[in-house]
Write a structure and sequence with these properties.
Blueprint (H helix, E strand, L loop, with lengths): L1 E5 H11 L14 E7 L3 E7 L3 E8 L1 E4 L2 E5 H10 L4 E6 L4 E5 L4 E5 L18 E4 H11 L15 E7 L2 E7 L3 E7 L9 E6 H10 L6 E7 L2 E6 L2 E6 L18 E6 H12 L10 E6 L3 E8 L3 E13 L3 E6 H10 L4 E6 L6 E4 L6 E5 L2 E3 L4 E4 L7
Antiparallel strand pairs: 1-5, 1-7, 2-3, 2-6, 3-4, 4-17, 7-8, 8-9, 10-15, 11-12, 11-14, 12-13, 13-25, 15-16, 16-17, 18-21, 18-23, 19-20, 19-22, 20-21, 23-24, 24-25, 26-27
Helix pairs in contact: 1-2, 5-6
């Protein structure tokens, strides 16, 4: 095998595929990248940890066909440090790949390509497609509410993705908060699509998507989901479990509606959280909302206390006082992009809903913290909808 690449071409391919290479697997081959020539002057780069995999195809000058397996991290780091514009890979089957530029030469130990797992291929046709930028925005929003890996209900450790005639919907919840995002499709899906994609896969997919409107194609096959875009193919296992009936926690109507400037509220919450550091009630923040202002209060026995006041643009309903996890509130504000947002409530013990006047198809819910007179009781939970 002998291939000549533009430096940026091979660097981009390796930067994409390194995301699926395993660093802790007992199978050493899973930390390797398979580089293989294909028809039409294409070269594929493939990595997998058996649960998630990436294959990226690029154009190159193929002088001699073949394939080779090399350590993904080593070749990625080497190519990243090379200053020349051209890189040549040559492998003669002697257990060492030669990487050369005009003024440098490296030999990288290889493994037998037969050891590399066969990557799964979708056996069915595409179910639906949507713009990359739109998908990236949806996943960026919902990733914040995915439960950690310590969560016993495995379905909550991923993002629920469904598609039907009404569009694509992504939902996540860790039982203390919930995010739901809906976007329309230009064409309805060709079949049923309802999967739970693991958090790790979602994070890696997010890192690969661009802001462009070029399409991402979705396919399902044998317990795996496939995404294809920009000469890149991704597969991920699907979490086997039932996602909770989250719709019951989303208020159908709200009695209290408050419109505030997002950036001012975001900065106020950020400052107040500095003082919300009690070990028994980390990130606890009290809120008092009236016609004129939204007040934030936080305190720490050791550090002191904080008071912030944010002007209210519009108000409907009666004044209310409640407590929330300020960190959860902050993370929702961080992914929202609108100048103004609605804070929607019914009572101090009911879900707090955030959304925007411009796009009400993105919903953020934070469960309140229930307080006793003298100390904290517990955070309200949405366990009941599971």
């Amino acid at each position: 095998m002998k291939i000549e690449f533009g430096k940026k071409v091979i660097e981009t391919a390796l930067a994409k595929t390194i995301k699926a290479a395993s660093v802790r697997s007992p199978l050493p081959i899973l930390s390797y990248v398979l580089i293989r020539t294909e028809k039409g002057g294409k070269v594929s780069f493939s990595t997998t940890d058996l649960e998630f995999g990436i294959e990226c195809r690029v154009e190159a000058n193929i002088l001699e066909e073949g394939s080779v397996c090399v350590p993904a991290r080593i070749i990625t780091d080497l190519v990243g440090q090379i200053m020349e514009d051209r890189v040549t890979l040559e492998y003669g089957g002697e257990g060492s790949l030669e990487l050369t530029t005009v003024k440098s030469k490296y030999h990288i130990n290889t493994r037998d390509v037969e050891e590399f797992p066969i990557l799964p291929k979708p056996s069915d046709n595409m179910i639906f497609s949507m713009p990359q930028g739109t998908l990236k925005e949806m996943l960026r929003n919902v990733i914040i509410a995915v439960a950690g890996m310590e969560e016993q209900r495995v379905a909550l450790t991923g993002v629920h993705v469904t598609a039907d005639e009404s569009g694509v919907m992504t939902v996540s919840t860790d039982s203390r908060r919930l995010v739901k995002a809906v976007e329309p499709l230009d064409e309805p899906p060709s079949g049923e699509f309802s999967v739970i994609i693991p958090q790790r896969s979602i994070k890696e997919i997010l890192g690969l998507l661009s802001e462009e409107e070029t399409p991402v194609h979705f396919t399902l096959s044998e317990g795996q989901v496939f995404l294809s875009f920009d000469h890149t193919n991704i597969f991920s296992r699907i979490i086997d479990g039932k996602f909770p009936n989250y719709e019951v926690v989303i208020p159908r109507s709200t009695d209290i509606k408050v419109l505030v400037e997002r950036a001012r509220l975001q900065n106020a919450v950020k400052r107040a959280l500095i003082m919300a550091s009690d070990k028994d009630s980390p990130d606890l923040m009290r809120m008092e909302i009236s016609r004129d202002s939204l007040k934030l209060m936080a305190n720490s026995v050791d550090m002191g206390d904080a008071y912030e006041e944010v002007s209210v643009q519009e108000f409907e309903g009666n004044p209310i006082a409640l407590a929330v996890n300020g960190k959860y509130f902050m993370e929702a504000l961080n992914v929202m992009t609108d100048d103004f947002i609605w804070v929607l409530l019914n009572s101090p013990v009911m879900p707090v809903m955030l959304n925007s006047p411009r796009r009400d198809s993105y919903i953020y819910i934070v469960m309140p913290v229930r307080l006793r007179k003298d100390n904290i009781d517990t955070e309200a939970s949405v366990h009941s909808y599971s």
